[in-house]
Amino acid sequence: MGAPERVALSRELVAQTALAITDSDGLEGLSMRKLGSALGVEAMSIYHYVDNKDDLLAALVDRLYGEIELPAEIPDHDWEQSFRSALQSFYGVLLRHPAALELFTTQPSSSANGMAVLGWAYDRCRLAGLGPAEAARTFHLCVAFVIGHAATELGMMAQLADGRPSELDNSAVAADFAEFLEHNAANKGQDVFDDGLEMLFSSLANTFGLSRQDAS
């Protein structure tokens, strides 16, 4: 019986494998040696596809941007449904890959897939009637909303995984504030995210005078 056929390496495969390692071990658990072992090669072989650790992180970010689904079937004029769909996909990427939160907020978005996302968002904003400055403000607001919500969601998941209490001792606070704390602790999940999107798009429409399609 012959030796098993070795999978041909590529930058994409290196990034895919690195992402699997960060999903299980976190960014701190990612090393060239561990990556080489997972790929079945010597660590030095990886440097044919990435220049160094920073370049590996850039490849990881590009891979993550590539997972964001940019809707093509929604009419160009329906800016809200297009953004809603893309932001929900972005939210899903952040929840599937906990390391993505740090990578998206610390690494540049100048990769091919990153620029594709930026270009898509810019085109949708322009079709909605926004100028470049307004488009940039809208994009940053939308990204900040998704990242903030995902960070809260992941933080709550970490609390539960660590066995830490998710509710405060409310005995010393007023009843209405205790109720607020109870609802605040429960503010997680897809329904809350969707409610936030509705508030976000309503605010954008009012701020920039944009028409809204049926959000259903």
Tell me the CATH superfamily of the largest domain: Tetracycline Repressor, domain 2
Order of helices and strands: HHHHHHHHH
Radius of gyration, in Å, reads 21 Å
Q: Please identify the structural class as seen in this structure.
A: mainly alpha
Remind me, CATH topology of the largest domain?
A: Tetracycline Repressor, domain 2
The gross shape turns out to be globular
Which CATH architecture of the largest domain is right? Orthogonal Bundle
Number of strands: 0
N/C terminus separation:
58 Å
Q: Helix segment count?
A: 9
Assign the CATH class of the largest domain.
Answer: Mainly Alpha
Largest sheet: none
The unreliable regions are 1-5, 157-161, 168-173
- Fraction of residues in helices? 55-70%
Description of the molecule:
The protein is mostly helical. It has two domains: 11-50, Homeodomain-like (Arc Repressor Mutant, subunit A, Orthogonal Bundle); 72-208, Tetracycline Repressor, domain 2, CATH 1.10.357. Helix content is 65%, strand content 0%. Helix 4 packs parallel to helix 7. It is globular and about 55 Å long. Mean pLDDT is 83; it is low at 1-5, 157-161 and 168-173.
